[in-house]
Amino acid sequence: MDATMRAVVLDAPGPVTNLHVRRLPLPEPPPGWIRVKVGAFGLNRSELHTRLGLADGVTFPRVPGIEASGTVDADPDGVLRPGQQVAALMGGMGRVFDGGYAEYTVVPRAQVIPFTSDLPWATIGAVPETLQTAYGSLTTGLDLAAGQTLLIRGGTSALGLATATLAKDLGATVLATTRRPERLKHLADHGVDHPLVDDGDIAAQVRRILPDGADAALELVGTPTLPDTLRATRVHGTVCFTGMLSNEWTVRDFYPLSYLPRGVRLSAYGGDAGDLPADVLQGCLDRLATGELALGPVHAYALDDIRTAHRDLEEGRKVGKLVGLP
């Protein structure tokens, strides 16, 4: 085996020109870790935050990437067989140790989820972190039940589309927003019951459809839209703060009595590999293969096109998930 590999290296926070494709030594897994031959890696807002210098605890230079899908290349403990398909995510990937933007990545065995699928790597690579976050937001964050109504703020993001799919599969009625009128059709074609143009007053639009407000709401834009999302939610309903498409996630001078509508609950969700059950991942991949589920469009980029991919991610040029192929 070649003792080197190609990887994307972020030298320091800054513009996309700080991302470089370089040849690095092939990493060796210590006990308790495995080496994964990467088939695909998803691009996430987390890596954008890292590149922009908004993430805590990151040291540079760093290979970014909080997730990767591929096959086991080496397990010094002999627990996982070579060739076993796995998804690796979170646990410090791409922040405190090198992540998935590479031909190979070394990760703690506890951070991988085995699966089996004949789907293309580009399709598989779009699933793990997005599914983990959508599934966790709906279950832990919102406890959504069949027959309820869900508002998704930031509906054309990869996470918004995946959450809409899972919510519809559960039996919920879905309202979802986009700032761009031309993207309403994307939401409708994806099965969203009520696509809405975000004019800054979504609460009024929601209450024209649901006079008492939505049962649940998923906030993916961030703190600028959170007050309006709270106003769109019924008494005893729940808003889950999961995403920060705006790159703004703190509330200054937070005064709960004036900020929170009476009786509306506010929660948050952020998860890890252990929060995505293996049977949920396997079931999703199986149903993607049969066409029973669709999580949204996937846009694949070669490793050498990582700067273009990050520009598209930062500027929101694409509807759906961006995936890198080493």
Q: Can you summarize this structure?
A:
With 326 residues, the protein is of the alpha/beta class.
Describe this structure in words.
With 326 residues, the chain is α/β, with parallel strands linked by helices. 26% of the residues lie in helices and 27% in strands. The protein is built from 10 helices and 15 strands. The strands form 3 sheets. Strands 3, 4, 5, 6, 7, 14 and 15 form a 7-stranded mixed β-sheet that branches. The chain has a 6-stranded parallel β-sheet with strand order 10-9-8-11-12-13, sandwiched between helices. Helix 3 crosses helix 4. The longest helix has 14 residues, at 128-141. The mean pLDDT is 96.
| Structural class category | alpha/beta
Integer average pLDDT: 96
Shape: globular
Element-level helix/strand string: EEEHEEEEHHEHEHEHEHEHEHEHE
Percent of residues in helices comes to 25-40%
Low-confidence sequence ranges: none
C-alpha-based Rg, rounded:
20 Å
How many helix segments?
10
Instruction: Tell me the total number of β-strands.
Output: 15
The termini sit apart by: 17 Å
Strand content of the residues, in percent? Answer: 25-35%
Largest sheet: 7 strands, mixed
List keywords for this structure.
326 residues; alpha/beta; seven-stranded mixed β-sheet; 10 helices; globular
Topology of this structure?
Blueprint: E1 4-10, E2 19-25, E3 33-42, H1 45-51, E4 67-74, E5 85-89, E6 104-108, E7 112-114, H2 121-125, H3 128-141, E8 149-153, H4 158-170, E9 173-178, H5 184-189, E10 194-197, H6 202-209, E11 214-219, H7 226-231, E12 233-241, H8 256-259, E13 265-268, H9 278-290, E14 298-302, H10 306-315, E15 321-325
Parallel strand pairs: 8-9, 8-11, 9-10, 11-12, 12-13, 14-15
Antiparallel strand pairs: 1-2, 3-4, 3-6, 3-15, 4-5, 5-7
Helix pairs in contact: 3-4
